[in-house]
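Hey all, quick one. A colleague (J.T.) asked me to put the calcium ion job into the tracker so the inputs and the structure tokens live in one place instead of scattered across chat threads. No bug as far as I know, just bookkeeping. Sequence used:
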Amino acid sequence: MMFPAPAAWPLPFREACELVVEHLKREVPLASWSVTRYEGERQVHLYVQDDAYGQSDGDSYAWSDSFCQHMVAGVAPQIAPDAMAVPVYAAVGAGQAMRIGAYIGVPIRGANGELFGTLCGLDPERQPGSLHDHAPLLNLCATLLSQILHADHLRLEAIGREAELHWIAFHDPVTGLPNRAMFLDVLGRALAEVGRRHALSLMLIDLDDFTSVNDVFGHTTGDGLLAALSRRLRTGLTLADTLARLGGDQFALLTDAPDHVAKAETIRKAFDEPFLVAGIPVVLSASVGVTVVSRDAAAESVDALLARAGIALYRAKRTGKARSLHYEPAMTMRGTRDVLLREPLRAALESGAVEAYYQAITDLRTGRPVGFEALARWHHNGEPISPDVFIPIAARSGLLPALTERMFDLACAQTAAWSRELGHHDLRVGVNVPAECVGDPDLPDRVAEHLKRHALRPHQLTLEVTEEALLADLEAAAAVTHKLRELDVRIVLDDFGRGFSSLLHLQTLPLQSIKIDRGFILDVDTNPETRQFMRALRNLSRDLELVMVVEGVERQEQADTLRELGCTYVQGHLYGLPAPPGDIDVHGG
Ligand code: C2E
Ligand code: CA
Ligand code: CA
């Protein structure tokens, strides 16, 4: 006898069948050996070694035709030298269809003793009297197969548990959706196949204000809501789409559907109807960032793709939520800049690294400076960062009040020093005051403090305020500006003519001066219409008793024309770039 070495056990059941049947074929002289399995009403050959009957693997017989059914019920091998002589089988008569002749069979039982099938041998011709001698071998083989079956069963169970653990590791228990780990895996594989498939689009879906839902209804309800939402999101998706919950209230959809606009629409629809929470209708909305990888795109990393969708999502949130935005390269600039510069800017403000440069406001009649505008300057890692970049970042990061305080402090200190140098208190300084501060009722007190600390006369300080800032909250701005006037500081309307302008709106505000935006005078020396317009503006400001300052004078011809028009105060590169205080000659001229 040559059984496989025990070390090879447990073999997968099929392999064991093959070995056992081949072994029996060599050891026991019958024409056909097979292992069969009972499947409901049928008996199926799992493995056949057949010289006489022409059976093959997978052939099946109905129970009623099966000789095994009539023979094998217990445990011991059943032996019939002539099957046709077995009374029950002969009575059924089905045996006539196939001459069985000699038969030996033994039941194979499963892990719990249930009947699994039969190990059996047949021979149409031979009826060896020695079949009984082989009964112990057959028994052994059947036991062996039972045990391997059992081991297989355990292994399958283990696979099942493993599959379950796998499922848990890669799915979100709340919604049943794939989780971040699985999504990243799917995304990575999809990216590797781009070019062979359609374009891909990635959408990051982030619920708006979901924390307030959790706060009001509790986390269990919040979870229920997320599950309900995921069911809605799933409808309308196909097998080509992967929807995942990345965590918290953020979902992601990867699709290679050619029409990703329609997909975005499907997502939007999920939010159309309110969700019922404890009988209360709750309306949810989401912001969506979308990025598309075209078929012919260069190889891209998962990180880069997620970052782009994230930037688009961030923009969607910033620009009012409940919307879907496609990524554009211009967004990267802003998004990345915000992220990279926010903390350094905060630190620079704290450490006093933000400086003030000064640009002269010149009297055209004398050519001398009557005052300066303080302009914020910031160097980061040795590089100058334009105020057009860092002022908006400060605004988005809530840093403008700190920046404004810093500028008041520097401008008051510097102007007080210059005044001592000049020996008079006529020199003025302008500080830009953004909307965030114009409506702040504490502003007048703080301004008074700065003036006092640096011994600057109030009339020397001018607050430069834009129309937009004043109109953001006209009532608050009116209250604050009137208080400032009581201090005797001056207020100038900055950037007049940029965007919408209506002095009528501002009649109620105590303005002393307007600054005409450089856009108004670009061609004042060559265009008669512009000249006419400037003349009208000059008349208007005279009538309203407002001092007019013209910004952005770069060429002598512009200055000459303005002088002819009766304008007095100018500011611009022609008279000096904004410069650090050390480079400035206050005596000027
Ligand atoms: P703004 O208040 O209108 O400041 C005038 C801007 O015009 C300055 O730009 C100045 O350098 C520039 N300028 C002056 N003369 C000329 C000229 O002849 N030609 C041209 N093309 N430009 C000229 P800057 O310093 O880059 O500041 C840009 C803007 O950033 C300012 O516009 C202001 O809105 C903001 N900003 C600057 N400093 C501060 C600050 O301390 N606080 C606040 N809230 N905003 C500031
Ligand atoms: Ca200004
Ligand atoms: Ca201006």
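Adding what we noticed when we looked at it: The CA atoms of residues 435 and 469 lie 4 Å apart. DSSP finds 18 helices and 22 strands in the chain.
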